[in-house]
Structures are given as structure tokens and as C-alpha cells.
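Because showing beats explaining, we let one protein speak, sequence and C-alpha cells together, and leave readers to judge.
___
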Amino acid sequence: MNDGLTKDYDRLIKTAEDIVRSIVKKYDSIIAAYSSGSFARRDMVYGSDFDIAFIAPGYPASNKLPPEVTRIIADDVVFEWAFVEKKMYDVKTLLETSPSVCDLAIARIWFDPEDFFGNIQRVLREEHSRPDLIKTRALNQLKIVENNFDELKKSIASDKFDNLLTQIFLVVRHAFNIPSVILNRPVTHCRSYLYCRNNSKDLGIEDFPDLVNRILGAEGFNAEKVNIALNTALKIFDTCGFPKESVETYKAHLRTVEYLLDINEPQAAVWPIYFEIVGAGHEAKRDNLADISEKIFKSFMPIKEEMRLVEKIDMESRIKIIGEIISNSKKMIDNYFKP
């Protein structure tokens, strides 16, 4: 078990089994359920969530399944589950595009009476290490960065900053993934900087994660500034208008920031603050909670100012940084997959 997690895995497994049993009983259209991510890797720390995916055919309308992600806190851990349509598990598409294919290959299966996910998992285990497929997945991550970079440049040029936070979110998230995907290793969300740093070293471009972090202005953050930003983030969730249960799960995710500060990685802690706040704002907007979404993004202003994500001149400076990230990504891919 990783440092930072107080509960043993056997207890978490029992809680997950109880959740799966309850959901499967409630929705008889479910054909499979599994968990991947940090649980499957035995890599959980404070703030890690325990994901459960429920697969159903024809989701959502024909099965009357809830469209939103459900989160609860149990055993001091956030358990998070959602319903996924069966057609999302096309093996060819997963092998060519999913940065999480390594995790799917080792996922813990909770429910699979017809061996639907089991069959998929066996193919993933056999095929996911093929160099041609690994390269295709890496190029797919790079393409997502490039596409959002193009949109970001348009936003800056036209002074339309409405989608800027989303474009930055996607550029940073997928740029952090690239070294891990090249090496066919797992990716993560809130500890992306650490994963990226370890894998970038093996690819000979050690400054790559710091370059990605500069998009967020993270180079200016020490432990004190991270703590100030963390307290602001906690207040945002306390006052935004989410139900209390939702507030507690969002705040529990932010414990990853505490973990990263405990291991003396303040600059690695900037991304999870951004990730959780921007992600929550978009979830609220998606769920037709426009007032809450607006309040989250408005309250985010002090952190944005510290990250230098407000003035146009600062945003323009990101263009050069992202250009370097794309160039270095291409070098890593080309060098690693030389004929």
C-alpha cells in the first residue's frame, strides 16, 4: 500500500462489492462492472478515488440509468461510479486511442456474468504492448494537445476567453500523458506531474513536465502559495451551492494536494487544484447548474491571477510554451519509435 492511504485494500474491496451488488440489483440492464485506476495498480494515496464503471447496452435513454457521476465517501475514500455505454468498448478503438489501456488490462472485474468485459480485457492484455499501437496512442494524445492549442490561439487572438480554461485543461492533461503513453505505462490525473517526470527522464527530456507546468504558472508556487490556493479552493466548494454531499467529495479529492505537499512536491500540487476546480465548474454546467458553475469560475479568479491566467499578454506567453511542448513531444515519439 502506498504512503498516504490509511485504509487497507481488503476493506475497500468489501465496500466496492457492496456498491456493485446494490447497483446491479437496482438496474438489471447492467452487463458488467469493473475498477481500474489507482486501485487496480495498488497505488492509492490521500485524495485518490475508487472508480467503478458499470457497462450497459443502449445507455442511457433505453435503460433509465442516471447520466451523472455518483460519488460517496466511505472508509475515508471517495467512491465514484458512472454508467458507460457498451459501444464505448470497441477493442480496436481502445487499443488505438485510450491512454488508460494499461489500467483496463489489469482492471478488477466485479460483475461480468456473460464475460463481456473479460473477453475485452484478454485482448487488451495480448495486444496493448504492440509498438505500432503504442505509437498510435501517443500520437492520439499529441493530436488532442494540438487541436486544443489551435482553439486556444483563436481564443487569445479574438479576445474570447470563455473556453480558455477548458482548452488549457485539455492541453495540460494530455501533454502530461504523452511520456507515459509512449512507454506504455499507466496515466493518472492529480499526480500527473510526478508520473510525467519519472517517464520523461527515461525518454531523455527531463524538463518536459516543468514545461507543461509553466502553462499553469506553477513555477511561481512554493508550499505557502499552494496552501493559500488550496484554502481558496476549499472555500469555493463550501460556498458554491453544491449539495453538502457533493462538496465533501470534491474536498476529499483535494487531499491529493496535501499528500503532494507532505512529500515536498509543491509544484506538482498546482495541477490538481486547477483540475478539481475547473472540472467541477464544467460538471455543474453540464448538469444544468449554471449558477453554481458561474460562481465556481468567478471565485477561481484569485488562483487564476496567481497562475497568471488573466491578462492577454500572459496568455500569449503560453503560446510559445505549448509550441515547445508539441515540438518536444514529437521528438520523444520519433526517437522512441525509430525504425
The chain has three domains: 9-127, 131-217+310-336, 223-307. The mean pLDDT is 93.
